[in-house]
Amino acid sequence: MEGKRMRIQSESQPQSVILLTKIKDFTRALLSDLTNRRSPLILIDRFRSYCTLPNSNCFCASDCPCGKEILTLSRKTHAHRLVVMLRVLLIVQKLLQENKHSSKRDIYYTYPSVFLGESFNLLNQSMVDQAINDICILMQCSRHNLNVVSAGNGYNMRSHSTLENALCCQNFLNNNNNNSLIFTFLHIIMTCSNVFNWLIMGWIRFSEGERIYDCISSPNTAHPVPVYVEEVQDIISVAHYILVVEKESVFQRLANDQFCNSNHCIVITGRGYPDIPTRRFLRLLVDNLRLPVYCLVDCDPYGFDILTTYRFGSMQMAYDTKHLRVPEIHWLGAFPSDSERYSVPKQCLLPLTAEDKRKVEAMLLRCYLQREVPQWRLQLTLILQRGIKFEIEALSVYALSFLSESYIPSKIEGKLMM
Ligand SMILES: [Zn+2]
Question: Which of 28, 235, 300, 395 could share a disulfide with 389, CB 3.0–4.6 Å?
Fold first, then answer.
């Protein structure tokens, strides 16, 4: 195992060296502009996973940037964005030099006063997110190359020790104003409540660094996986397919029903909107195992949006979509037409809210639906026309194990997926 670890570290070394050089070049150029009394212009490529232009022959599927954003110090908002970017860059540089990892939240709490801007606004963690995205685009790399991981993902293993956390909190208490107490509590709550984001079970075995994930030995047991996807290797599987389920409750139902025993598959849940490691891991599984992959979501706008996130990626991460999307994913259900096909009782069908309708209407405009999955778009139209939605669990109204024993196997055998 030690040998493998060494190999990983020596392989990742050149990438960090390249990045450190790029960071140095970038800051040197900025400094040179400023000392020569020139206002620096920073060009940031723009990426998008879709557009909403009617009947366009767009290039959203090409992974190419769609234009550039020009940051200049003459605009106050740009200047602040640049300050945040440089602060984050400083942290990233330190992480790369010391070969350490950190979460986005750690970064946020390093300079909360800077990242908060002028007003106390918790939503401004998005400034850190934007800075990380900007840096990835400028340095032409993925987020994991910066040694920045998802919040809570393996947090306690690699980023800070508990003592460092305590000191960090103590620093806030000593140095900041009244907000520091709120920060401290938020930090602790967020850290403790979200140590891992996703679950896996089934006929698969893999290693992550020195840790072995041997799901095959008990294929119906959920394994929480705080995984460093870049360190996953030795993936072995005898599964016939991969099933992605939107909800943990459905995942647990399948686990209780011993679903993987009778169906020889791998089941994953990203617990709602999948985070980056979940999507990277799914991409890795599909690349390595070449298995069919199916997705089971609620029949509502959010379920549909989660499905499209797996298949096409999210707008926020559009610059890195090619490493995150899974175009091979098929939609297994629930389709709007399933309510009739499986006689879902009326009381389990819920009316779409005004917000639901707005969300569906906005999603219908996305170019990739028309271009790549018109049959999905048709189903989305049907949701809107009928004005109803239902949860996956509604299908199990007559029999608790309906999903495991009937719905999923019959859909896969009958090829009733899109
Ligand atoms: Zn487009």
Answer: 300
